[in-house]
Write a structure and sequence with these properties.
The protein is of the alpha+beta class. Helix 10 links the parallel strand 9 and strand 10. The chain is globular and about 80 Å long. It starts with a strand and ends with a strand. The model has no long low-confidence stretch (mean pLDDT 97). Keywords: Hydrolase.
Length: 661
């Protein structure tokens, strides 16, 4: 990445600008803007997050926000209420209070003498979600958004209930947020006599969100609120949607490009859950330059050509050897002027010949361990590995060797007819690229809770032995399968630990299956190009403890229990400007017996540390989830330390009845 130090306008930074909400709650914002903005007002760009501007997102903030400011914008990074250096309490993700606060910040910014009245909003993940949801509320000053790694559907395409199946990330993310939100404000900003009161109040009111999310197992009003797919027409601001093929949110770019009536463009590259100017796998792109083109057009009314950009720009990845991490993905950029594209045709492949005896699908509960993380984050061993271990536990439909390469661009689908021997059952379908030597690389996958085959809102139990039809939509992808390789469709009825298992072992009798494959004419090279990545001066830190990520799968040959152990040590660094040191370690274990779905268990343990000049705090949060045939049982604990003294402890435990899952 090229570091830019000279900008058209000189930048000033305000590390703790207070923005007081109508109810009196003070939000803390870190703001960068041109020094002369008071004389020559500029548009504002808002990023509204719970992830702590002081020590959480500071790495990416340093690269991004000063860059925008230097090009004539007031870039505002706000800590949401109840997090970081802001007052107040947070009780859930994407609450009405959170969205209203963002609308109030937008109105406040638009009214400032240094602002020209136009505001944009951007963010990745949580910030990508809430900028779309805020856009649907249509605050008058909001003219454009840039949403990265986000979703339009809070129920079926987030970390909660993919395809109606309970994702383990539902529990994992609740554990993460319990840890993230347990940290105090910085005493240098909050004040020596105030930070501790704010912290203890925050801890006393801390929510563990897993039980709440488990109480909404169907697509009810809780999930519809904030899901802009309920009414795409509510979004009037111009939307630039960006995603990555190695992220969990692969479908949003297509959904937005297909449905938004406002100006909309989409870009999707080979990246994990990161901003694309520093993301991996490479190639990264000049995201900040691309963002400036968007902001300049919609916030400054400068003709930058974005309106004539292709509707959909995607990176078609070449086939590679399976690996848990790829520093780079070879491939090419393709462009479609409209999306869905009339150039993409569907090829239909019957996987089971007519009249054949039904195929039995009865996978061990441990099938799925090669699937990787739902949204890889650490530049570490989190990607799907060689699929052969999972293929061996699935029913596989191998296609003939390809005589010529094909480009798969879009969302593959598999239509099935099947019966189940139990009233509740899941199905997981993977599309794989099989190399000549048998190595199996995951192209895309989809999961479906078969009780949700007709509706996520009104599930219907399966009648054992009765044949039903279902359609499994796999995630969007852009992938070249070379000549000499073959496609494999792998079908299982378990996918651990991506989804929580059905309450009983299941056998599916698969009587028909049809693959619908979206094929694009073979690209001969890059059809578009992006500038090389640029960024402002990187965050200046001293490394105290280096980061490290590890994953291990162990099988106890005596008990049969299979355990996935994950340790993500995010390291510890000291900020060279204000001296605050922060460190973080996440530990997860996921255990299951191949024959017993009720043996499934997940445990997490997070450690967070902050220190400066003899002052230190530490939080330890732990959580566990298991289930019986009727209930999910979740528990959690917070311990907070000032120095070595325990100053707060709290336990959570709740049992939530299982619905049709």
């Amino acid at each position: 990445m090229k570091t830019v130090t000279e900008f058209p306008r000189k930048v000033v930074e305000l590390p703790d600008m207070g923005i007081v909400m109508p109810d009196g709650c003070r939000l803390s914002a870190r703001v960068w803007m041109p020094e002369d903005a008071g004389d020559d007002p500029v548009p504002a760009i808002l990023e509204h997050l719970p992830y702590r501007k002081r020590d959480g997102t500071i790495f990416r903030d340093q690269l991004t926000h000063p860059y925008f400011a230097g090009h004539g914008y007031a870039s505002i990074r706000v800590d949401m209420r109840g997090n970081g250096d802001s007052e107040g309490l947070m009780d859930d993700e994407y609450s009405e209070q959170e969205l209203q606060d963002a609308c109030d910040v937008i109105a406040w910014a638009a009214s400032q003498p240094w602002c020209n009245g136009n505001v944009g909003m951007m963010g990745i993940s949580w910030g990508g979600f809430n900028c779309l949801q805020v856009a649907a509320k249509q605050p008058p000053a909001l003219k454009a958004v840039i949403s990265l790694c986000s979703t339009v559907d809070r129920y079926a395409d987030d970390i909660h209930y993919k395809g109606g199946c309970l994702l383990i990330e539902n529990f994992g993310w609740a554990s993460t947020m319990l840890s993230y939100s347990s940290r105090p404000p910085d005493p240098l900003l909050a004040g020596d006599n105030r930070w501790r009161d704010l912290w203890l109040t925050r801890l006393e009111n801390q929510s563990f969100l897993a039980p709440l999310w488990l109480k909404h197992q169907h697509r009810d009003a809780y999930w519809k609120r904030g899901s802009i797919c309920e009414d795409f027409s509510t979004v009037k601001a111009a939307v630039l949607s960006i995603g990555g093929w190695h992220d969990g949110y692969r479908n949003t770019v297509s959904h937005l490009a297909s449905n938004i009536g406002a100006p909309v463009k989409g870009i999707i590259g080979p990246w994990i859950h990161k901003y694309p100017h520093y993301a991996g796998p490479k190639p990264a792109i000049g995201f900040l330059q691309e963002a400036l083109r968007w902001w300049d057009r919609w916030l400054k009314d400068i003709d930058t050509g974005v309106e004539t950009d292709p509707a959909y720009r995607a990176y078609v990845m070449d086939s590679v050897r399976p690996a848990r991490w790829h520093p780079e993905r070879p491939g090419r950029w393709v462009a479609e002027q409209e999306w869905p594209s009339p150039a993409i045709k569907t090829q239909t492949v019957d996987l089971i010949p007519a009249g054949e005896k039904p195929t039995i699908v009865a996978s061990p509960q441990s099938c799925g361990l090669a699937g990787g993380e739902y949204f890889p984050f650490t530049f570490g061993p989190e990607l799907p590995g060689d699929q052969r271990p999972d293929d061996a536990l699935s029913v596989c439909f191998d296609q003939p060797e390809l005589n010529e390469a094909i480009d798969i661009v879009g969302a593959p689908e598999v239509e099935v007819r099947l019966s189940s021997d139990r009233p509740q059952a899941n199905i997981a379908i993977r599309l794989c690229d099989v190399h000549p030597d048998g190595a199996s690389e995951l192209i895309s996958y989809g999961v479906l809770n078969l009780t949700h085959r007709n509706s996520h809102e009104f599930p219907e139990a399966l009648v054992p032995g009765e044949t039903v039809s279902a359609r499994v939509v796999l995630d969007q992808c852009a992938y070249r399968v070379p000549a000499g390789h073959r496609l494999r469709v792998a079908v299982s009825n378990t996918y651990w630990p991506m989804i929580w298992p059905s309450p009983e072992p299941v056998q599916l009798a698969l009587s028909a299956a049809t693959l619908n494959l979206p094929l694009r004419p073979l690209a001969t090279g890059d059809e578009i190009a992006f500038a090389e990545p640029e960024g402002a001066t990187p965050w200046a830190t001293e490394t105290i403890r280096a980061a490290n990520s590890e994953r291990h799968v162990d099988r106890d040959e005596k008990t049969g229990i299979v355990t996935l152990s994950i340790v993500d040590d995010f390291g510890e660094v000291r900020d060279l400007a204000h001296g605050l040191a922060n460190g973080s370690i996440a530990r997860e274990t996921w255990t299951i017996h191949p024959d017993d779905p009720l043996s499934a268990s997940g445990k997490t343990h997070w450690t967070q540390t902050l220190s400066r000049n003899g002052w230190s705090v530490r939080t330890e949060t732990s959580a566990e989830m298991r289930s019986d045939a009727q209930n999910f049982i979740v528990s959690a604990r917070i311990e907070a330390y000032e120095g070595e003294n325990l100053v707060f402890e709290r336990n959570f435990e709740e049992k939530v009845q299982r619905a049709l899952l």
